[in-house]
Specification:
alpha/beta; Rossmann fold; seven-stranded mixed sheet; 6 helices; 9 strands
Length: about 200
């Protein structure tokens, strides 16, 4: 650790070790992780969900804000990764690591926080929105900041990002996590808004 790096919670460090052992390189960055912890903290009795557990780094960040009355459910389709990630949370009954397709999450919905990071985000965005409880928070990472509106990626309008940012059931915004990466953060409205632009 250098003088400029902020320490991460011990369970995040454990999940990062699992990632290293497994050769897994798609874990969320700490800037996203701190947002995940914050979101979980805001819903102390909530159901917190994640699609795409990976080695458990994002799960561990969500866990860092998990209330005593909250539950955390995450799903990973890679059996070996799911098994390894589950070992990081074996001591906490509030956490369930499921193995299989992200749609296994449906039986645990609606969610107060949903970090949609593997399955759903691209293949069923409307289905993702429908899994949110009223007031539920959705977090999507790994976007590339765009100075344009509508946002562009690779020279084209980024229709996926636009879908989330203008969805009538969501209050949504995009935030920089690093100079080169961003997240979309959204809350499900109690009443859909009639027009969004
Ligand atoms: C970006 S990585 C997840 C990183 C993790 N959320 C974190 O923050 O550390 C995406 C993961 O989603 C998993 N995945 C992709 N599609 C999936 C699906 N349809 N159902 C379940 N898991 C899926 C991949 O195997 C991969 O491990």
């Amino acid at each position: 650790m250098t003088m400029t790096q902020r320490a991460v919670p011990p369970r995040v460090a454990a999940a990062e070790r699992v990632a290293s052992e497994a050769g897994f390189r798609k874990s969320c960055i700490s800037e996203v992780g701190r947002l995940l912890g914050l979101a979980a903290s805001a819903k102390p009795h909530g159901i917190i969900a994640e699609s795409g557990t990976g080695s458990g780094v994002g799960t561990a960040w969500l866990h860092s804000g998990l209330g005593a009355g909250a539950r955390l459910v995450t799903v990973e389709r890679d059996e070996e990764l799911a098994r390894r990630a589950a070992s990081v949370f074996a001591d906490d009954k509030r956490v369930s690591v499921l193995t299989g397709d992200w749609r296994l999450l449906e039986q645990h919905a609606p969610f107060d926080v949903f970090f949609c990071d593997g399955g759903g985000k691209r293949d069923d965005p409307q289905g993702v929105v429908e899994l949110l409880a009223p007031g539920g928070l959705l977090i999507l990472d790994d976007f590339t900041p765009s100075p344009h509106w509508p946002p562009r990626f690779g020279g084209e309008v980024d229709q996926l990002r636009l879908f989330y940012l203008t969805h009538p059931a969501l209050d949504a915004t995009e935030m920089l996590t690093t100079p080169a990466s961003s997240v979309v953060v959204a809350a499900r409205r109690l009443q859909p808004c009639e027009t969004r632009s």
